[in-house]
Amino acid sequence: MNMRTLCLAVLLILPAPAMAQSCFDLWVGRNTIYDNNGYCFKSRLGRTYFDNADCYTNNARLSKAEHRRVARIKAQEKRRGCRIRTNVSYYNSRYY
User: Fold this and answer.
1) What phi and psi, each to the nearest 5 degrees, are found at residue 36?
2) Residue 29: inside a domain, yes or no?
3) Confidence (pLDDT) at 64
4) Which residues in the chain land under pLDDT 70?
5) How far apart are CA 78 and CA 36, in angstroms?
6) Beta carbons of 37 and 10 less than 8 angstroms apart
7) What's the total number of domains in the chain?
């Protein structure tokens, strides 16, 4: 099990109020689901963070549970007004 998968597993079992996550954490959590399903990232940040070395699709097939998790994360991102700059190749906390 790689570190991203382990982190995602922890995120999935923690209750929502206990997860005081940043917008970047939410972005990583959501995109880790896609990465684990072979998605090839197009954004500069996505390619840098997730590497794309093992990607194989531009249309990742998610399970129903994964779709629900992505929807919950997107809703949380929307509530917080998250806007991740994906045209950069590194994470800088000043921007998030």
Assistant:
1) -65, -15
2) no
3) 98
4) 1, 3, 6-20, 93-96
5) 23
6) no
7) 1
Assessment of whether the complete model's pTM goes beyond 0.70: yes
- Tell me if 25 is assigned to some domain: no
Task: Note whether 88 and 44 are within 8 A (CB).
Answer: yes
Tell me which residue range forms the domain holding 79: 37-96
Whether residue 10 is contained in a domain is answered as: no
Question: According to the model, what pLDDT value does residue 1 have?
Answer: 62
Can you give the pLDDT at residue 18? 46
CA distance 89 to 40: 16
User: What SS3 state is found at 56?
Assistant: coil
Burial class (CB in 10 A: 0-12, 13-18, 19+), 36: middle
